[in-house]
Design a protein that fits this description.
Strand content: 15-25%
Strand order of the largest sheet: 2-1-3-4-6-5-10
Number of helices: 12
Helix content: 25-40%
Structural class: alpha/beta
Oligomer: single chain
Length: 306
């Protein structure tokens, strides 16, 4: 997904000279094509993420459209105050890119895991949050974020994420995308955990239950129109994310649905509220976090959903 980000940014920067990239001393080779024609707009800010956020805010005030890019914990939590005051409070059109989100950097331990970033960004006024499921969703949504001209957090994966769509999806910022139509329960997924959501969909369908599968690529603003409609159709909604079960996408869904007259039961699945360590791969980390089809099915059976 990070390769797709670099490629799309390079293509867009060729036709829009207002686009800038600040990166925190990673991805040097990744951005070589951008440097070839826009070296002055491809800025290595060094290992100084807080300064990078403030530089980007200043550039935005001068009429530019800057991106800041590095590993997710270092582009969100490490420089949170600068994002809050310089970008969100000033309502500047900076796109904050977090690469390797969730448990992508599993083997590097909790310093490189990001399961609090959506919660942090959700708490900021003026901030928008988009979590594409694969490179294809990234390519479609990225130009829309630039056109938005507002602060945005763009939560992307690392590499080798599976393609999740059979055909070109008609994605719109702020609108949930229904991948499969169902009549008995719904699975709402955000970000790169979508392949697990698809496997869960197949496992539940195999039990003779009709399931609706939705890519909720935009976490903020949340597509409340879809939630209002789906809440009248289903008694159970499953949310899936590679983020802490508290404060993230599932919490956003639950917060809205709890105020509805006809409120279905929301079953949130994500990273439990504890650190994940001593793992060697993303798959191993997901298993330790309980993010497997078998574990989720077992929990749904215990809750008498299935």
């Amino acid at each position: 997904m990070r390769n797709a980000f670099a490629r799309v940014l390079t293509e867009l920067a060729k036709v829009d000279e207002s686009l800038l990239l600040y990166y925190a001393d990673i991805g040097n080779r990744l951005f070589n094509p951008l440097k070839e024609f826009a070296a002055e707009r491809t800025i290595n800010a060094g290992i100084a993420e807080a300064n990078m956020a403030s530089m980007a805010a200043g550039s935005a005030m001068m009429g530019h459209k800057p991106f800041i890019y590095t590993i997710t914990p270092f582009t969100t939590s490490r420089n949170f105050e600068q994002i809050k005051i310089d970008i969100a409070y000033q309502n500047q059109p900076v796109i904050i890119v977090g690469t390797g989100s969730g448990l992508s950097y599993a083997n590097l331990g909790p310093t490189h895991h990001s399961f609090e970033d959506i919660a942090l960004m959700r708490s900021l006024p003026n901030m928008n949050i988009v979590c594409p499921a694969d490179a294809q969703e990234l390519e479609i949504l990225m130009p829309q974020l630039i056109a938005l001209n507002k602060p945005c957090y763009f939560r992307i994966g690392k590499k080798n994420e599976p393609k999740v769509h059979h055909n070109q999806p008609d994605l719109q910022f702020g609108r949930a995308f229904r991948m499969e139509h169902g009549t008995q329960l719904a699975i709402l997924s955000t970000g790169t955990i979508m392949p697990l959501a698809q496997a869960l969909y197949r496992a539940i369908e195999a039990r003779g239950i009709s399931v609706e599968l939705v890519s909720y690529h935009t976490v903020k603003p949340l597509d409340t129109d879809y939630l209002n409609a789906v809440s009248q159709r289903f008694k159970h909604i499953i949310t899936l994310e590679e983020h802490n079960v508290n404060g993230g996408f599932g919490s956003a869904v639950l917060e809205h649905i709890s105020a509805l007259t006809y409120a279905p039961k929301v079953h949130r699945f994500g990273i439990p509220d504890h650190f994940i360590d001593q793992v060697h791969s993303c798959e191993d980390a997901r298993k330790k976090a309980g993010l497997t089809v078998e574990n989720i099915i077992n929990q749904l059976v215990e809750r008498e959903v299935l």
